[in-house]
């Protein structure tokens, strides 16, 4: 992968001086066009061999572009603190909104490569982490992010000479510590691991650009020119939604005999008020004990509630969190995305709320909006919600692998019961704020929602994060059921990891 | 993943009888439209739980469609014979050409799932095999193949009852052996592994369709209807070449200072005729010994020659194979694809020649035509050759993992030397057949080819299958160099595996 960067490249001073002004002007123009269009974000990854000029390139690019619209972040190998959340969490935090840029010095490649070189990860784990990166980058590109992946290379001899020179110069000696020296000793191992990383992640949507790092003028000009071409192509490309899937109608077929999951539920189950009070207290007690279980310090909890309007999500969440210390949990209600959120990949706003170990988050509606309301209302394209199942499964797998327990509830009511509750809301003064014309409009789309729920459960109820579908016509029975199911599910997940 | 197939579905006899005739007519019409267009192939995968009606469905589909345009194949777990070639080889053999269909009873999912259930593969290896399948299916779809992936499900109770019924009936008792009984005992493990397989391979381009297998009428109608919708969408979709990449110009940038890999070579190396004869004999002897090395019985050898016109590929191959027993090797010259080959994914015609263990194949030009002549001449789109690097790397990785040694040579000559050889061909009577107007036309595109070679080496020279670029202005020196390099490379690969 590094063949042409092994040839020594060079640009003479005069050429460099002559070329830079025009390049800078063009870069700024392209950056502003990106900003004005606000249709795509651009992320620059700066990776490569120690001493190959990565840090200098970051500074140069920030000098040539307008740094007010660039977020520059450095990433190193993961620390203990980083391990309290899923690996990709920290990268989600720095994704630029549409129109903006980010320059990442070190990236999601750094830790996998270093961990492989130092033997912390075996070949299989390394391959899996690279596969996760492929998946992540494909998702970013599908969401309209342009990836510019730089790899700055130095041949072995040059790497050794460069380290010596840096160590000898009092102005730069601080940059060479025991770590840099250890890295150099493993130069060959680094090349083997990097070769595999670059090979497996050079997708057509996100290719690598390898640059010989020896000559500063060559390096800067090569990086600047490539970045310019990617910026210009980002500005000229059609908006991401216009990209089509290879085969049109992969939309899931409706059940042939009309029998859906929701219709097959038993909605007749009831519990008396008296028994409810007793059971509620029991399961709340159990839930409280679980939140203080020592093993929960290494785990976190995400509870998702979805359901038709008036299914009882809000009141159930209130009973649930009543079991917990206020410092332990957070309730996140999800409405239509705001402007900031629309400028990001759709999973972005959910990544933000992922709890650290020892904490819980309850979502009142969630990322499943993509395959429910956005699908039914046509807020996103068929291709978008079809790929969302896959992306959601990958997302939840990442959460669970990082120790998050993901419990998902669909509160299922019948159309008749919904009608009864709507009417009650209209006639009860303190409930009138809870019913809007939109609720009535959604109700008319009941069959479409029912199909969407069916497809959602079929495609995202997995061993890793199963759906719990609970009949909710009787609110009391449903609440007990939810608390009991949650307790048992959390218990099972804790036991499994031991 | 199996939620809605756990609900018992049913179609009554009268409805079935009323619906089937129209469905059959529509299926045949769609099949013939596919055939006439000859733009896409369609592959049906039949997978699922034992006794869920997979075999019956294969028969029904063959009865409803015109079986003359369908290739039906059954695949079971891999046998020792299968392990003599890369895993995916046997599936490449049965891919239907454009316009045709294939029905695969059992598929590339069967062996990974069974191997996982019986503990032959650990979790990491299972995940890697699923990832390979994702990659394979994405490639198929990009090449215009439509995938119809059926999973026939039976709940545990129904699976047990069905097995009992089959065993009790003398007409079907033969279908239930110790294997089927062992599978049933591991029903839960099968569901866990299948859940992971379906979840990780439900890509938007190739979704799974899960069908409740209990009721024959429901099963047939559900499968037939879904197949019909996919056939119709295959016919209505635009040809695959029209599908665009999300971001336009990801084309690799040319080297900034104009210094290419090929120009950096030392073309001045020479060897005397006398020394050449001696060295040739030595390395041919070495190559012969290697072909008879006991370890080669578990390995196979693929040698690839690429180079500009008149670089000396043919004459070098003759010297190379002179070292071998005629039963050991095969030389495969690659020209422009014929009609049959154009009706298949571009890697198809190369998969066909992959040698079994203990054999060698020498390619005179190869799959690299995709990123050389097809790129330069515009025979395929930018998106096509850009994704080819990734597909070729995955292909070669599969070969090497299956024990194939892949040695790739680029024979590099200078433009001056090519001109000298062209002139010599024109003036030497017995060489005149070797020079055509096309050779002169290609020569005019030298700079484009040089860029294509540079990108090819940068993107496909990997630890798994590196490129050997050999200066070839002196034919004698080059031949010795090729034989020596090949011997040493094969030797290293044999030693590495021990």
The largest chain-to-chain contact, stated as pair and per-chain residue counts, equals: A-B, 74 and 74 residues
Taking pLDDT < 50 over at least 5 consecutive residues as the criterion, the unreliable ranges of chain A are none
Count of distinct structural domains of chain A: 2
Average pLDDT confidence of chain A is 90
CATH homolog superfamily of the largest domain in chain A: P-loop containing nucleotide triphosphate hydrolases
CATH class categorisation of the largest domain in chain A = Alpha Beta
Oligomer: homodimer
| CATH topology descriptor of the largest domain in chain A | Rossmann fold
Helix content bin of chain A: 40-55%
Largest sheet: number of strands, sense, barrel closure of chain A: 5 strands, parallel
Provide the β-strand percentage band of chain A.
5-15%
Which structural class do the helices and strands of chain A define? alpha/beta
- Total helices of chain A: the number is 20
Roughly how many Å is the radius of gyration of chain A?
Answer: 27 Å
